[in-house]
């Protein structure tokens, strides 16, 4: 089932869009292995069944500015900066359970509204970050409702 989900996701995302350059440089197409299966399944639902619009995550491979919106490895600058002074950093980005997206077809607010309206379609609890100009989507179960908005 996981392989089928990845095969279908490849219609919408190149793995380079979902991982940092460090991860892709070392693992290439095998980088799919670092994503949580529940995240992959629900990312497919998000893109195919709920939003139904193109989503952009990382664009580093096309010369863009974003390289840490998807999976972040331990040598990514954002991870390093968060763990200074031995601070804990357990982001869904580092655990293959979340990513940030944008779309030229709808705003982040519109995407969050559609997700909330269609939360019943997801197979697990999902979280989105509120009051930001992008869509953060993850499958961390915060022990609350099926749909949770959190402050970053």
How does this model look, in words?
The chain is of the alpha+beta class and 152 residues long. The model has no long low-confidence stretch (mean pLDDT 95). Strand 2 and strand 3 form a beta hairpin. The chain is 33% helix and 11% strand. A 4-stranded mixed beta sheet has the order 1-3-2-4. Helix 1 crosses helix 4. The protein has a single domain, classed as Muramoyl-pentapeptide Carboxypeptidase, domain 2 (2-Layer Sandwich), CATH 3.30.1380. The radius of gyration is 15 Å and the shape is globular. The chain is built from 6 helices and 4 strands.
> If strands are numbered along the chain, what order do they take across the biggest sheet?
1-3-2-4
Q: What fold name stands as the CATH topology?
A: Muramoyl-pentapeptide Carboxypeptidase, domain 2
Q: Give me the count of strands.
A: 4
Low-confidence stretches: none
Supply the helix-strand structural class: alpha+beta
Over the alpha carbons, how many angstroms does the gyration radius reach? Answer: 15 Å
Number of domains: 1
How much helical structure, as a percent, in the residues?
25-40%
Q: How confident overall, as mean pLDDT?
A: 95
Second rung of CATH, namely the architecture:
2-Layer Sandwich
CATH class: Alpha Beta
Question: In percent, how much strand structure appears in the residues?
Answer: 5-15%
**Gross morphology:** globular
The secondary-structure element order is HHHHHEHEEE
Taking the sheet with the most strands, its summary is: 4 strands, mixed
Q: Termini distance?
A: 32 Å
User: How many DSSP H or I helices?
Assistant: 6
